């Protein structure tokens, strides 16, 4: 918090895919749920590529660092899919995660009673699932060196990456995971591939060592292939999962499907200091862009996580979460979570309904 001016600075980047033509605005002194905000929109990803030719302009990273929290829209689109790697929207995302040093990515996957029918799993398997995936976000094979392309001795083209973790990187994500598990059911499952990969052998050793600081948390280990299976066999066995960057990427998509739709799931990315980064775990869904079909709830719930984890405004966060539940209780559904007997609505109508519900709670309070 910038207590000196009494305002909270939030950097907002809208969903890049849909704002290519729009300008980026600054809104000062907004009253949101009784909290005073400065919002600044900055381009990143496709919009930044179109505007200035790079996926993460220096100005955007500087503004992000200078904020109390960053809300990020989904990135990517066909238009840039064939760009060179350094000119892909995804590269901008990796750069902002690295730039803000947000190594801990919290990805909750909760099956809401309202959406059990939208899950691909049977009711008795899906009902009551509440898993938190703690994904390491700034290390591993996503960032490891050496990486690149080369030609081998037979003239064959080779692509290569390196899965690498230093002990300190494992220790700090393990601590976040133990702290997280402690506030939940107190059970932590560390997922790795320690039967094959050295980076995973170190991972398992360090997580086991850190566990001594958390005697109240029950630690288990699981190989990632088994974890992928267990998640669809009996997801309720999991409370908190901690895993590396790439396994966390994959398992969180898998976990999201149990909840009905990836369009529901928010995430928080936190470092040891500085602003957190809050974004839906889904992509930009370019196949339905501009059709008013996308589910806005993951982004709305990311704003709730921003309030909770980024600004410690738990009451305001709860209001947004309640508004989402209230809207679902009224039967409103976007296409991705639609089931018989519910009301199919577009992105805009869903967003407006949540907003109305937030407002009515404020007035009731
Ligand atoms: C995610 C996404 C990103 C990732 C991509 C877009 C770089 O899939 O946030 O899960 O792999 O981390
Ligand atoms: Mn992903």
Automatic annotation (TrEMBL):
Pfam families: Iso_dh. It catalyses: (2R,3S)-3-isopropylmalate + NAD(+) = 4-methyl-2-oxopentanoate + CO2 + NADH. PROSITE patterns: IDH_IMDH. Binds 1 Mg(2+) or Mn(2+) ion per subunit. Gene3D superfamilies: Isopropylmalate Dehydrogenase. GO terms for biological process: L-leucine biosynthetic process. Pathway: Amino-acid biosynthesis; L-leucine biosynthesis; L-leucine from 3-methyl-2-oxobutanoate: step 3/4. Residues 30-354 form the Isopropylmalate dehydrogenase-like domain. It is an enzyme of class 1 (oxidoreductase). The keyword Ligase does not apply. InterPro entries: IsoCit/isopropylmalate_DH_CS (IPR019818), IsoPropMal-DH-like_dom (IPR024084), Isopropylmalate_DH (IPR004429). The keyword NAD applies. It comes from the Eukaryota. Keywords: Amino-acid biosynthesis, Branched-chain amino acid biosynthesis, Leucine biosynthesis, Magnesium, Manganese, Metal-binding, NAD, Oxidoreductase. GO terms for molecular function: 3-isopropylmalate dehydrogenase activity; magnesium ion binding; NAD binding. Catalyzes the oxidation of 3-carboxy-2-hydroxy-4-methylpentanoate (3-isopropylmalate) to 3-carboxy-4-methyl-2-oxopentanoate. The product decarboxylates to 4-methyl-2 oxopentanoate. Homodimer. Belongs to the isocitrate and isopropylmalate dehydrogenases family. This is 3-isopropylmalate dehydrogenase. It comes from Linum tenue.
């Amino acid at each position: 918090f910038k207590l000196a001016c009494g305002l909270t600075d939030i950097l907002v980047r809208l969903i890049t895919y849909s704002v290519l033509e729009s300008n980026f605005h600054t809104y000062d002194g907004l009253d949101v749920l009784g909290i005073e905000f400065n919002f600044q929109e900055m381009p990143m990803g496709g919009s930044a590529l179109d505007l200035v030719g790079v996926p993460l302009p220096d100005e955007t990273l500087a503004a992000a660092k200078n904020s109390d929290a960053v809300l990020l829209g989904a990135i990517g689109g066909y238009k840039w899919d064939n760009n060179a790697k350094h000119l892909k929207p995804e590269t901008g995302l990796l750069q902002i995660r690295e730039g803000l040093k947000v190594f801990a990515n919290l990805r909750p996957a909760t099956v809401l009673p309202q959406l059990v029918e939208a899950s691909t799993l049977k009711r008795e398997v899906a009902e009551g699932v509440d898993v938190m995936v703690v994904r390491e976000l700034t290390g591993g094979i996503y960032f490891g060196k050496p990486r690149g392309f080369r030609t081998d001795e037979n003239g064959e083209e080779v692509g290569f990456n390196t899965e690498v973790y230093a002990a300190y990187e494992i220790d700090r994500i393990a601590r976040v995971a133990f702290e997280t598990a402690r506030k939940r059911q107190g059970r932590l499952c560390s997922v790795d591939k320690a039967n094959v990969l050295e980076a995973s052998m170190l991972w398992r050793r360090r997580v086991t060592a850190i566990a001594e600081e958390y005697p109240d948390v029950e630690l288990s280990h699981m190989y990632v292939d088994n974890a992928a299976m267990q998640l669809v066999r009996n997801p309720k066995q999991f409370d908190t999962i901690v895993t590396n960057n790439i396994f966390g990427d994959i398992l969180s998509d898998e976990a999201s499907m149990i909840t009905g739709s990836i369009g529901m799931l928010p995430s928080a990315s936190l470092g040891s200091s500085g602003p957190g980064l809050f974004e839906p775990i889904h992509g930009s869904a370019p196949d339905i862009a501009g059709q008013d079909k996308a589910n806005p709830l993951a982004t709305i719930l990311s704003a709730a996580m921003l309030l909770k984890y980024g600004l410690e405004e738990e009451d305001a966060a709860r209001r947004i979460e309640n508004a989402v539940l209230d809207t679902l209780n009224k039967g409103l559904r976007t296409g991705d979570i639609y089931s018989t007997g519910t009301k199919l609505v577009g992105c805009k109508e869903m967003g407006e309904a949540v907003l109305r519900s937030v407002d009515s709670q404020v007035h009731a309070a």
